[in-house]
Amino acid sequence: MSFTDVFKKIFGTKADRDMKQIRPMLDKVLVAYEAVDKLTDDELREKCQSLKDLIQSRIAEDEARVAAIKEELEKEIPLSQKEALATESDKLVKKIDEKIEEVLDQILPDAFAIMKSTARRFKENSEIWVKATDFDRDLSTSKEFVTIEGDYAKWQNHWMAGGNEVTWDMVHYDVQLIGGIVLHQGKIAEMATGEGKTLVATLPVFLNALAGKGVHVVTVNDYLSKRDSEWMGPLYMFHGLSVDCIDKHQPNSDARKKAYSCNITFGTNNEFGFDYLRDNMAVSMNDLVQKKHHFAIVDEVDSVLIDDARTPLIISGPVPKGEDQQFMEFKPLVERLYTTQKNLITTILNEAKRLIADGNEKDGGVLLFRAYKGYPKYKPLIKFLSEPGMKQLLQKVENYYIQDNEREMPFITDQLYFVINEKQHSVDMTDKGRDLITSGLENSNFFVLPDVGASIAEIQKNTSLSAEEKILKKDELMADFALKSERVHTVNQLLKAYTMFDKEIDYIIQDGKIKIVDEQTGRIMEGRRWSDGLHQAVEAKENVKVEAATQTFATITLQNYFRMYHKLAGMTGTAETEAGEFWSIYKLDVVVIPTNRPIARIDQNDLIYKTKKAKYDAVINKIVELTKEGRPVLVGTTDVETSELLSRMLRIRGIQHQVLNAKQHAREAEVVKHAGEPSTVTIATNMAGRGTDIKLSDEVKAAGGLAIIGTERHDSRRVDRQLRGRSGRQGDPGSSIFYVSLEDKLMRLFGSERIAALVDKMGMEEHEALEASMLSSSIERAQKKVEENNFGIRKRLLEYDDVMNSQREVVYTKRRNALSGERVEIDVMNMMQDTAEILVDRSEGLDYDSFNASVMGSLSIDLGFDEEFYQGAKPKDILEKLHENMLATYNRRMDAMVQKAYPIIKEVYEKQGAIYQNIAIPISDGRKMLTLSVNLKKAYESEGKEIARALSKTITLYQIDEKWKEHLRDMDDLKQSVQNATYEQKDPLLIYKFESFNLFSKMLEELNQDVLSFLLRAFIPLRDASEAQAPAQQRKPDMSNMQTSRTDLVTNGGEAKSKMPVHVEKQVGRNDPCPCGSGKKFKNCHGKGL
What we know:
Number of strands: 29
Helix content: 40-55%
Shape: flat
Low-confidence stretches: 1024-1034, 1049-1064
Radius of gyration: 34 Å
Number of helices: 37
């Protein structure tokens, strides 16, 4: 017995401890259900309303105080008081959240009981009659399942969902109540296939929606978001909770804004993220669609928060000279390099085979290792390594050359043109490779980066050059470095495209475009592109149109988006294997929920073959055997190429089958529908492993259920578990088995040496298979190595994005303050303080005139003190005086504008206030002019002081957008250029953090100076009142040239837009009686204004 087993015996498993913790709450729910289920339908709805009232009563006082503070911040009060009020408001918001959580925990049993009882009533009654509320009457105008007859509302138990009519037939099991409790606690509930995750979610969604702060239900595709909102929506609506789906409405529309205002909002992960970015490009509070990020439940949480999380959401637009790229120009050079190395590897491998056959394993092993470093995916090499003893010989040679920090490795690699590291997914050109691609060029240093540090030092030492000539020389040097850096990057990406990315495995070509194939699901990822020019490199390789480069305007990763929520929960069938990552990044605990019925599926040990050919032959024979028994077979593959190979083999044997891969994505629903029929063979890439529910007839269950055959172990255990999970739903019989060969990618890269040694010792024939639980465990250990490697990659990418995220939070907070205007004066005062500190810090060693010139150049104001004070004062005193002068200048400028504009505002408001809502006031700083839009009523009531706030808002917003856009472009360039730090034996991430901090500091400094420079010189160039009488047009962000996309830093998950049937909601004629029962015509009632 191992130590782990002893530990489990004493303390129990984590699952046991989790259930022990949840059991008391479950018992309370069951007790509450007994009482709640006896209530009449109207009493049930009243019970729900009483829970809403209880929550509101607990937070009413704090909510009232927050509202009062908001009103105070709108008034003209001292800045110190404003800052204190803003801090108090932030603390109160956190306090309200804490109070809500306390009261929700108390009412959980009653809320869960209400939802379960509601589900039972809809299942057992085709119609439910209740007293009609205003909400019912509103609903009856758009939903067919609610009709009004007099004072009563009739609710039907069937409605449209996902284009099909469904009749409600589900009631929550006890294990689903457990899942609901786990989700409410902000954890991840792992539930097996067929356990009803969608129904489980209704419990915590209903409970948390009662607080009125909004609940977001996040799905992986728009079909599921629309279907689930329509399928589960009536249960929530029955209790007066509004429900909508953002994917039904256009971005930035009033309809989408209304969807976010609902109690419960469904949507895809991408759209929630993109709406957040769009909100941070808005120029008016009215343009904002999202509310507070309060509580989100993520369906298929491992797909969204792990697979998708490493890909940034990006809103981008055209960049000048975006078409000017060098991929097609350098493609012939890289193609020549690739072909030359391939021919070289063929020669080296043949020589290695000859030497080894002659008994010279020492020299033959060296050549074999060289061939492996030069082209590890070369099929003849993979075939040769599957022969007895070859894998061990390669590992023995590799162990020798990687010792002592790879001191001897150049002996192997110097003969190659480039070196591939398949585990690290990287390729590095050697000096021999560089010589080859520059051999046909006049300049031998065409791809050699200059030593910038040494070259600048030489320029500085050169006494024959003047100061201006030195600056010119440095500029030329930096331009040369930038040009060559771009060339090196282009060539490296092209080389990566040729050596690391394979057609039909990593991507397919469709409609003349490169479409990425998701390694987790096998689906096409529409709209996704690899980053850093890699996608353009693949396009050049395949001779399709190379898309123009774009510039990032706004970006965020899903990891950082979902970490903004007050509370986050998730559900999936496979999260346990990634529990460490969920806790490390999101602080989410994974709880495994017991199944309603015991799993009857038989999971057999893996069968291990020497070669892929033998493995595929065995798979075909197994399929023939299973179909004769009348069992349906689901064959899982890891790529499109394998699925098509197996399809050809089955056609030769005359076996009827259906194929589902990235090329047949549109047929998914049809294929899955037939997959459970007797003797049906379905070959599918991993896309069949997630979100599909294969239902079986009694005939199939009697024959043994659905048989799962995996043709290769995936890099991730989650994907294999998803495939197994298609069989054995709700206690159905079934079986699963994986066929593995030593030539598979996983086994080549991470397979145990012991397996290869065992195969050699036993002298296995090609068509013989190894089978043992020990070997299956060994393969799982290999998968763990890959998962650890992938976690490392994701963590690294997150570290890069965390740098951006900290900057994003600062900028977006400033932007939101400028947009709302409540705290913009505080931000302006902080800008003055920060700018004064920077100017004074840099004044050391400057005389009075130089310091005065510096301040005049930055802010266009004088110092406000004389030379005598400057010479005798300490830096702290100078800072205080300078800040006082900036503040005095600002107040003087604002007062002058108010005095000039207020008489006009007063006249316009008193004579034409009923006509105009805003007034346009021209304002200049002497260099540029802007037209300021000011609310006429606020300006009149504040006696013109609203002008100062409106000006601060407008100029701050404008400058933030311009500076942030430039900063994002600089950060894109920086991320690309820091990769060259590896040539200097430096960590690119450390350089990135250091340089990005400098860039951000510089950006903030320029932002502060540009805002203050305008404010401290602002004046109104008015001669008469007529110039201020036209209402201002609101500035709108131009989204016409912008596009949303997911940039893949590595290949990962995603979903295409669904083509679900469109269901038109209830249509009412303008002159028809209103369905709400008021007796009025629709156009005079609920149709008013439509």
